[in-house]
Amino acid sequence: MLTSLSIKNFALIEKLNIDFLENFSIITGETGAGKSIVLGALGLVLGKRADLSSLKNKEEKCVIEAHFEISRYNLQSFFEANDLDFENQTIIRREILPSGKSRAFVNDSPVNLQELQSLGEFLIDIHSQHQTQELSEENFQFAIIDSIGNNQDTISEYASLLKKYKSLKSNLSGLKGKLQEASKEQDYNSFLLEELLSAKLKSGEQEELEVVFEQLNNVEFIKESIDKSLAISEAEQFGVLQNLKEIKFALQKIATFSPEYNSFLERINSVAIEFDDIVSELNQVGESLTNDPEQLELTNQKLQNIYNLQKKHQVATIHELLEIQDVLDNKVISVDSLQVEIEKAEIEIVESEKQLDSLSEVIRKNRKKAIPVLTEKLISILDLLGMPNVRFKIDVTLSEAYHNNGKDDLEFLFAANKGSDFGLLKKTASGGELSRIMLAVKSILAQYQKLPTIVFDEIDTGVSGEIAHKMGDIMKNMSKTMQVFAITHLPQIAAKGNAHFKVSKSTVGEQTLSELKLLSKEDRIVEIAQMLSGKDISDSALNHAKALLN
């Protein structure tokens, strides 16, 4: 419940501090006195957007602070989810700076407007004539029926499953799109893959083949060069080997004369050994060289195939071709894999639909049980409110689609008089009738759920006399289990409150100020008498006011 409200530098209010009571509170005041300003301040606390026009003094900041007792609201989980400190006495503060910036705090922790709006929905429901249009909205109509049918937990479970179901459907749609694209390229990708696989490519193979090709393609020239090298090396009198032996023999004669000469001998000896090995290997290579046109042709074909594949795929190495081969392999495999995933997703969707259908059937049965209860209660209350012939026709029918709150379509029709046809509320009911229906709905909902503090803003417009008495009784009865405020112009309703606040406007110097104060018993008699007879209060008006209060 709202326990206190502090307003500083807002519209016509310079400074205001007011405490509120439980149960039923009345707010009255002349038109233009500032009742809308108080509601506007509450709206800012609940997360409505603000601008500089809200500031009375444009050089100072506006501060609105509301205190709430929330120990019975079960809001701990909300505070935890939004990383806020939970306090039974929660303080919401809204500041509007001269720069135009706005700040909001919950228990001194900064919050954004979305968080503030979400919290505000649990705390205060400001109901005005304009909001009676909610009655015509299907979601609100379902909410009424579901409260009576105790569907909240089932709908919560359904909503969680529906979220998963939509995710599965989205995933399936994505998989089918991928499959469609993959299928278009499947034949071509398979052809490219087979072409690469048939080439039996190996990393480093191209370099080896190019060496073999050069050898086979130049075998005669190579053999000629090797033979010539061997001839020069092995000639009996003037060959390199013979000459090295001669040099070695000459150096042996002088090697003992100095370390330098001995070093020359060792180096020549190393050269002779190395050269001997070269000649030996040249002999082996020369003997192995053969002219093999068939092998040359095979090597050439293999290389040409590699070159063609590189040109086709616009790469320069076998390594890159092998990478492309892996990609194509995955693409070809992915079509089969996608088909398996699609089949799995379809099975999951069917199972999810079965669970949704089962839950929606429970919701539908509870709604059908709740509808006659709601209809009976509405007719009973509205009879008291001067609508004795009102009738409702409410039906739920199975829908093909999964809605956010079940699988039902709703028909909520209304007839105000005998013999009149049923029609939609927004087309059939007048503003006064909508106000009374909304009051009846709120009073019924108060029996089935923990409603936040309700502010009825002139819901009594268009009624008077005994009907106003009944409306006051209904609001007073609601206030037994919740905090109710009624902003009213009717003395019959004003007299029902446990507390009575008056909004008044005064001129101080060059300024116009609004204030809100709690009326004493005597002030309250005067205020109700003025509501009955105007500023010139008669004795009969005073007596009537006392009678109403008693």
Automatic annotation (TrEMBL):
GO CC terms in record: bacterial nucleoid
UniProt keywords, alphabetically: ATP-binding, Coiled coil, DNA damage, DNA repair, Nucleotide-binding
Domain of life: Bacteria
InterPro entries, per the entry: DNA_recomb/repair_RecN (IPR004604), P-loop_NTPase (IPR027417), RecF/RecN/SMC_N (IPR003395)
KW Secreted (keyword) present: no
GO biological process, alphabetically ordered: DNA recombination; DNA repair; SOS response
Coiled coil spans: 328-369
Signal peptide residues on this chain, from the entry's feature table: none
Boundaries of every RecF/RecN/SMC N-terminal domain copy: 1-507
Keyword Glycoprotein: no
Any GO MF annotation of the entry: ATP binding
NCBIfam families tied to this protein: recN
Function recorded in the entry: May be involved in recombinational repair of damaged DNA.
Family: Belongs to the RecN family.
Name listed for the protein in its UniProt record: DNA repair protein RecN
Organism the protein comes from: Flavobacterium macacae
Lineage: Bacteria, Pseudomonadati, Bacteroidota, Flavobacteriia, Flavobacteriales
Gene: recN
